[in-house]
Specification:
- The complex is a heterotrimer of chains A (about 220), B (about 70) and C (about 260).
- Chain A is mostly helical.
- Chain A has one domain.
- Chain A is about 85% helix and about 0% strand.
- The two termini of chain A are about 30 Å apart.
- Chain B is built from two helices and no strands.
- Chain C has about 260 residues and is mainly alpha-helical.
- Chain C has one domain.
- Helices cover about 80% and strands about 0% of the residues of chain C.
- In chain C, α5 packs antiparallel against α6.
- The chains are: A mainly alpha (about 220), B mainly alpha (about 70), C mainly alpha (about 260).
- Chains in contact: A-C, B-C.
- Chains B and C meet through α2 of B and α3, α4 and α7 of C.
């Protein structure tokens, strides 16, 4: 487990030195959310209806923006090869990187979402459900996204190809994440949605680093 | 067999566009796909044959004394 | 490393499998098998079309437009089945490091994508007379759309990696991740659909199928299956030649 924390700490320190990249993704999230009312109209009832979906889709896209960064820098300067050769399990190191990625790219989205939710006239209790859903969902997005980032490492087409690969896999998280908030707004039970999100997260914590590691080894051996 | 005439068959109860649009698209794509695959196979074979001939030509030129 | 020399005292079945997993052996075999599959496809196609148009009765509710199911359902089934087979060969290639498995997965993908596209196209043409819109966000059609994206992603990934072996392995991981996610995606879309639309619009809930309708779908499905195998064999032969171009056996095979 030490390997996980050590790797996470290292990546966090590196991210702190490159704050602009992180902040750009956050501003992207804000801008995309603002585009929808501009495109659809400012009617509060309509905005309340589309808010969960819009916020979730914007979170997906903002996460995608940060994914190519996950392995690219380390791949370029050879650190990734060192990681693969190190005595620590590559899976644990990958988990550490994904954790750092989430802390830097995902958690800020979770914290920012209620503010943007207010723009869409969401009630406070709906905002709470939104935050919980994103709290469960954004790590899931980082974990699944890591697989895509590893598969497309150093490949032509980079970020767009990554999006194409990963977005279909994001659909269940989107459905249950936005669905939880929508269910709450409609006065229906939402615990089921959150449980399913949690279950998917639990499974991803185990399998995603494994798939990511396999993909990294493939990228490194060529 | 319940079509009273050829015309009725093609009309498909007024839904001709949808029914023949569907079956037609399938027939079209399932004819084009194998043709494209076959062309790809032929293109590879032609390229490789040409390279092989070029190789043999090179070798005979190398062997001959002038 | 030639797999057929690795296990000289292996079980006869695995020796037989490894023998045919070798491209120089499989190439002529595929060539000999192809015509048979085309013949079977034609046979099942004729039988299926006959049942579809001349045996299956007019539907009381949907009239003649329901006949679209005789291509829509087989296309859907094949799009799912081919994805499974593709993932299977990809996994075999990863585990046993056999080149041919990766080539087979690569050969299957375009056909699977075609089936998904046909399923969406025919589904749309079926939906218009039934529910008045060109697109219905029904659970099956929406899942089919996502499956199409999965196929396109697989093809795009392999197309953008120049090294064939890396493309095989990367595609394999993607296909395996995809195959695990397909049930999750289908379940989530189904759930999403019932929540948002109630149970009013459903392409799966057709009126009780007459026996003949099932026969029609089955025969057409078999036709599509034989077709898919025949096309995949054609394509894999091209891929084998492309990848094995530098080997001696290819040079001899062209004589």
């Amino acid at each position: 487990m030490n390997a996980v924390w050590a790797m996470a700490r290292r990546d966090l320190l590196l991210a702190l030195r490159r704050q602009s990249e992180v902040l750009t993704a956050l501003f992207f999230f804000v801008i995309v959310c603002s585009l929808f009312p501009l495109g659809i109209g400012p009617e509060p009832a309509l905005l309340r209806k589309i808010a969960p979906g819009v916020l979730w889709v914007a979170a997906l896209l903002a996460t995608l923006l940060g994914l190519p960064r996950l392995f690219a820098a380390d791949h370029q300067d050879g650190t990734l090869e060192q990681m693969a050769l190190s005595p620590s399990s590559l899976g644990l190191l990958v988990a550490g990187k994904v954790l750092a990625h989430w802390l830097v790219s995902g958690l800020p989205l979770v914290l920012l979402a209620p503010v943007l939710g207010i723009q869409f006239d969401l009630a406070p209790d709906a905002l709470l459900v939104l935050v919980i859903a994103l709290l469960l969902g954004t790590p899931l997005l980082s974990l699944i996204g890591a697989i895509g980032a590893a598969l497309t490492l150093g490949v032509r087409g980079g970020g767009v190809l990554l999006a194409l690969l990963v977005l279909p896999l994001y659909v269940p998280a989107l459905i249950f994440g936005a669905g939880a908030v929508e269910a709450h707004i409609a006065g229906m039970a939402y615990a089921g949605h959150l449980s399913l999100l949690g279950a998917m997260l639990a499974v991803a914590v185990f399998f995603a680093p494994w798939a990511t590691t396999a993909a990294l080894r493939i990228a490194l051996e060529s | 067999m319940h079509w009273n005439s050829v015309g009725e068959f093609f009309a498909m109860g007024g839904r001709a566009f949808y029914v023949w649009g569907s079956f037609g698209a399938c027939a079209l794509l399932m004819a084009v796909e194998p043709i494209l695959a076959q062309r790809r196979a032929r293109a590879v074979r032609d390229t490789l044959r040409r390279e092989k001939l070029a190789d043999e030509l090179d070798r005979t030129l190398d062997r001959s004394p002038g | 490393m030639n797999p057929s020399t690795r296990t000289p005292t292996a079980h006869p079945l695995s020796r037989w499998l490894f023998h045919y997993a070798s491209p120089p052996v499989f190439y002529p075999l595929a060539g000999r098998l192809m015509p048979w599959f085309w013949a079977l496809a034609a046979l099942f196609g004729v039988a299926g079309l006959y049942v579809s148009f001349f045996v299956a009765p007019t539907d009381a509710v949907q009239g003649e437009a329901y006949r679209i199911i005789f291509v829509h359902v087989p296309a859907s089934w094949m799009s799912m089945f081919i994805y499974l087979v593709m993932a299977f060969w990809a996994a075999v290639g990863l585990v046993f490091n056999t080149r041919l498995s990766g080539m087979m997965a690569q050969a299957l993908a375009p056909t699977g994508a075609l089936m998904a596209v046909l399923s969406l196209w025919t589904g749309s043409l079926w939906g218009k007379p039934m529910w008045g819109t060109w697109w219905v966000w029904d659970a099956r059609l929406t899942s089919e759309l996502i499956l199409a994206f999965l196929y396109i992603g697989f093809i795009a990934l392999q197309a953008s990696i120049d090294d064939a072996r890396r493309a095989d392995k990367a595609g394999a991981i993607l296909a395996l991740v995809g195959v695990v996610n397909v049930p999750v995606i289908y379940f989530s879309v189904k759930w999403w659909n019932t929540l948002h639309q109630g149970a009013s619009v459903s392409m799966t809930k057709s009126p009780s199928m007459a026996q003949t309708m099932l026969w029609g779908m089955l025969l057409m499905a078999l036709c599509f299956w034989m077709y898919a195998i025949a096309v995949a064999l054609t394509r894999v032969r091209a891929i084998i030649l492309e990848r094995e171009a530098a080997t001696d056996w290819v040079k001899h095979a062209l004589e």
